[in-house]
Amino acid sequence: MSHQVPHIAVLVLDTPIEGLAEKYGDFGDNTIDLIKATGTLSFNFVKYQLNTKNSEELDKVYEELLASVHNHLIEGFVLTGSRSDAFSTVHWLVRFKSLLKNSILKLGKPVVGICFGHQVIAAVLGCKIDRSNEGWEIGITTISINDEIYKLENSPFTELTQRENIESSGQDFGAAVLFDHLNLVQSHRDVVFGGLPSDFINFGSTSKCSIQGMVSIDRGDGNKRNCKIITFQGHPEFTTEIALDLLKYKYDVGLLTEKEYEKAKYHTSSLNNQGYLIGKVINKFLLPEANKE
């Protein structure tokens, strides 16, 4: 894909996972697949690999990314997951945090953060990120949704609906019912702790993670943030097949005990993966005007 066309910048914040990337692609590929599969618009995508120890390669990627920014070619940003810690001080991440805080979040473009992307955005906004005392939250997990997200003006979360047949006066008709719970793949043991910035609300919560995402809002106090931000602690881009293979990978490399693995595998095999609904939300969020009916 040429960088000389308007595009969504997919900022890849992990290196490919051996054994999985060959089968499914990297985290950037998974994210692009989700957006393409759940939208009606033809986005152009460019992946920017920002997690590398090679300084020359990193310099080249930054040169390309900043050129796209300078030429107003980027319509939105998506930050992927990563096996790194958002509180790490490795070179590539320190450099990326600076770019995120001083440039990306000031451009007025929509920004989506997924898992690590969610955490690193929260980190540069001043939130505390650290290891959870609850250990791994992994596999398909049920999230309790904060109903405040539906009350936002032009909320993209109105995509989180299901059709139900409701009987009224002897007649059946379809009605859209907003979800109060949602099943998403999880794969993290770091969390954003309490204390979101005043112009953000929480997407939802689970028993192991009280902040399952952040949504930027306008408080009407004259301090409106220049950009719009939506983040998710979960992985809507992971299909059930990817999630099961990722569980096996983590178990094989010793990150999960057998009990943790078997429990997560059971939930992932039995619960309905609703990541595609978040894909619809992301589509509407990235280009809301084009998505209006």
From TrEMBL:
- InterPro entries reported for this sequence: ChyE-like, Class_I_gatase-like, GATASE
Q: Which residues form a coiled coil?
A: none
Cellular component (GO) terms are:
cytosol; nucleus
Entries under CDD domains matching the protein? GATase1_1
All copies of the Glutamine amidotransferase domain together span: 96-240
**Protein name, per record:** Glutamine amidotransferase domain-containing protein
Species in which this protein is naturally found: Candida metapsilosis
